Amino acid sequence: LDKISLRSDDVVVSSHACGGLTDVVIERAMSAFARVAVLPCCHNLNDADGEYLTGWIDGALAMDITRAERLRARGYRVWTQMIPEAITPKNRLLLAAIPPLSPRH
After folding, report:
1. What is this structure's pTM?
2. What confidence tens digit (pLDDT) does each residue in 54-72 have?
3. Which residue, 47, 50, 79, is CA-closest to 65?
4. Strands 35-41 and 11-18, sheet pairing
């Protein structure tokens, strides 16, 4: 992944990137201000951001929420969706893009 050159007009897509690979994909996309679509999988809760939320919600969901918030903090617009569980039980889809600059009047 480090050998691929990314640009801001790219879309970085990852399906079932296990463990920390989802975070690597997100970080690489953010470094280029590229759009990103990930379907997280195999959450490694030992190294998880969001563990402070696990008193309220499932650890994997906490990780995915913090991923979405990390993107928002970097200026991304974030969309969260679910794909049918019949396709995969790891079905949380996270989409994000930097909004275009509004034209000046």
Report:
1. 0.87
2. 888 888 898 899 999 999 9
3. 50
4. parallel
